[in-house]
Amino acid sequence: GRPAVVAAVDLGASGGRVMAGRVGPDDLDLTAVHRFGNDPVEVRGTLHWNILGLYEQVLAGLRATLADHPELASVGIDSWGCDFGLLDGHGHLLGSPVHYRDRRTDGVMAQVSAQLGAGHLYDVTGLQALPFNTVYQLVAAKRAGLLDAAGTMLLIPDLLSYWLTGELGAEVTNASTTQLLDVRRRGWALDLVERLGLPGGLLPRLREPGEPGGTLLPAVTRQVGADRAVPVTVVGSHDTASAVAGVPARDDRFLYISCGTWSLVGVELDRPVLTDASRRANFTNESGADGTVRYLRNVMGLWLLQESMRGWAAAGARPDLAAVLAAAAEVTPFAAVVDCDDPVFLPPGDIPARIADVCRRTGQPVPGTPAEVTRCILDSLALAYRRTARQARELSGRDVDVIHVVGGGARNGLLCQLTADACGLPVLAGPVEATALGNVLVQARAVGAVGGGLAELRSLVARTQPVVRYEPRGHEAAWAAAERRLTA
Ligand code: LFR
């Protein structure tokens, strides 16, 4: 292959970026062209994404990328999962997409599980029960009358690429987060759709990463200042799918933690694990690039810290993340630990107050300062990784000898060290931009700039991107004791 430049649009729950990737058989070079915030907007009690604002930023990012690289070979889009926009029969967007942390799904999961059977749902879709899975959001939307005029449901990256290209589709890795995808066939579970009384035509044709995704519409071509209709390539449009594709693993004996707003902790498999034990542990079998299975569990993640920081800033303090983390490193370990998976931490709001409630209820000292709260969050996250990593290995039977931490969390040295200690395995931290790398690699392969399977793509990441190694310091007894306190 000959080196090519491709653009990755990567939207996370707290911010987005457009990156230019130069990729060839021995080259992988990523430049951030445009970064922007992603701030949800509450309107009349409903939390929405500012989708038009995000689209505008995507256009601005592409314009800047094309100014530097007029030869741009392809564009690919990924974002967080589960959320969607609804189009009417003429292709117009019906309302701004609702945020997965909105409370419209309160109670819905329990009702749907009772109706269809939690065991049956897991057997068909292999998906973990999360209250914001698309299926529960669609049921909530139907009850609110929002599906009456709806012709098509588009997941966020599919919606943006529809606006760019005019082409409709449902990219399969992200479709796997809807809980409406049949995990064995990688096709829509139309039987579930029908039993829930959802409109049959709502779900567009599925597309696989690597497929052509159309070309920029003439009006868009003008808006971004391109001199031709630049192609769009379908990528692993679920951000976690792209992140896992971008892990610099040297063989398959690895566990990954894709660490951003969420921490996705798991292994990559060839086929799903659909046992009852797996369902009870709430492990998910999401789809990955090249037909792989992302066998993982959601851990609440850096959300706990991001949302705490937002609260401190709103209260007038001007906390600096680096300073808070440095101070947290000096706080007594395990003074207080909480179960990160507690659903009380899901909605936006005062996280330190909720942590304080849990600590009072469990007879632990209440963390007071930002440093103490942060230490409690990081110790607790590491404990959640310890439990989840053990379960992933046990339930899948996969042996691992290293943990790859990718995403923004790879920058957090304290968290990486605690993770190595908690799990008793070396941590390889980085790249921070694994998601954008996975995105550009799948595009680069589609346009012929590189070849090979996931192993070859990963080896290119390993050869070109810096990683930092953390060795476990061997405090196993202390971690085991802390874990017992959580379950006591
Ligand atoms: C991570 C992520 C997770 C998904 C959550 C909500 O960014 O995509 O994989 O469970 O966001 O969509």
From TrEMBL:
Stored Gene3D superfamilies: 3.30.420.40
Record-given protein name: Rhamnulokinase family protein
EC assignment: 2.7.1.-
Enzyme class: transferase
Gene Ontology terms, MF aspect: transferase activity
Domain Carbohydrate kinase FGGY C-terminal positions: 255-446
Keyword terms, alphabetized: ATP-binding, Disulfide bond, Kinase, Nucleotide-binding, Rhamnose metabolism, Transferase
InterPro entries reported for this sequence: ATPase_NBD (IPR043129), FGGY_C (IPR018485), FGGY_N (IPR018484), Rhamnulokinase (IPR013449)
Signal sequence, renumbered to the chain: none
Family designation: Belongs to the FGGY kinase family.
Carbohydrate kinase FGGY N-terminal domain span: 41-246
